[in-house]
Amino acid sequence: MMLMRYRRGQRVISIGLLLLPYLTCLAKEPVASAPIGLPPAANLKVDFVRDIQPILSQNCYACHGPALQMSSLRLDQKQSAMAGGNSGQPIRPGDSANSKLIQLVAGVLKDAVMPPQGERLSQEQVGLLRAWIDQGASWPEGSAASAEPASSFVKSNHWAFQPVRRPVVPQVRNSSRVRNPIDRFVLQRLAKEHVTPSPEADRATLIRRVSLDLTGLPPTPEEVSAFLADQTPQAYEHLVDRLLDSNHYGEKWARPWLDLARYADSDGYEKDKIRPHAWRYRQWVIDALNRNLPFDQFTIEQLAGDLLPNATLDQKIAAGFNRNTLTNREGGVDLEEFRTEQVLDPDDDLGNRVARPHAGLRSMSRSQIRSHQTARSLPAVCLL
């Protein structure tokens, strides 16, 4: 993950990646609304064992059962099913219309339907599930699907896999140090670790720190004097806005991204030939940060900019992200074979280059079978 742009009108800048989990948690949770087009609930008293368990067993257990729990969701046992997975609680007893399980099996969500393959649930089956949930989602403890299996799947506690929720802002003793809600989380953790906050920096130190953090350059003597002379309450905010408007902001913050994307100006290997047009991708990243391109679009254009409808030249350049690997152009090299190996290189493959900067994961690779006779790599399993 990387630090994206500070918004004008706010008084706070979060520098560094330490606070990213807190920033993520502060996002608002959308307000649920009943979708249009759901089949009506069945007009009968539903029995879980007779009516519901067969539907779950036939349609859901392959991906959300004892052997596999996609998105950390398990539907063959009561406690796990009610708790939900990475996308939150799928069953809301008494409210089938806003239960994500119903919305998915009914196919009313855009680009999302369950089961993802095979035959869809009938309207009668969806109606039974709706009636069961509206009647309180009764799940008898004696049913086979409610029993805890011998081998229970443990969900990851890593913050990146948790549903986004707004946490309760903690109360702290030293409220005089609070400038915004994020400060309260920082002060709470410092108190937990029995660490006393450092004294507030003087203004000359402050401008030096924020200048180095945002642009990588120290302030000039004239800039320091101007900041010290500005005694208005918005002095710090104006300073931050000026630094974010500087082209040096993109140059500074493009560097960690380019490192994760494995960018280089040359091929590597013995010849290490110069890549005469590689700088265009580097410049695209700099410009994207300076124009505050939203992170979702920043990601889409790099992964598939050349495949977008009516793709612009800049979007095609962004797709250079996919070619930031070592390139061997020495004599005797089969260029098409090596192009395939570039994608499958276990130390530098596309899966890892996507996972590390986008998902905060150390590795997301795949197994590979290598033939010693032909020295060709064959993809066996591609997790990406």
Biggest sheet: strands side by side, in what order?
A: 1-2
Strand content: under 5%
Number of helices: 16
Give the uncertain stretches in residue-range form: 1-32, 146-153, 366-384
Q: Got a strand count?
A: 2
Order of helices and strands: HHHHHHHHHHHHHHHHEE
Specify the oligomeric state: single chain
How would you describe what is shown here?
The structure is a single chain. With 384 residues, this protein is mainly alpha-helical. It folds into three domains: 48-161, no CATH class; 203-245, no CATH class; 249-379, no CATH class. The chain has 16 helices and two strands. The protein has helices at residues 20-25, 48-59, 61-64, 78-83, 100-106, 123-134, 181-192, 203-215, 221-229, 235-244, 247-260, 279-290, 295-304, 313-318, 335-344, 350-359, and strands spanning 368-370, 377-379. It has a two-stranded antiparallel sheet. β1 (368-370) and β2 form a beta hairpin. It starts with 19 loop residues before the first helix and ends in a 5-residue tail after the last strand.
Break the fold down into its secondary structure elements and pairings.
Blueprint: H1 20-25, H2 48-59, H3 61-64, H4 78-83, H5 100-106, H6 123-134, H7 181-192, H8 203-215, H9 221-229, H10 235-244, H11 247-260, H12 279-290, H13 295-304, H14 313-318, H15 335-344, H16 350-359, E1 368-370, E2 377-379
Antiparallel strand pairs: 1-2
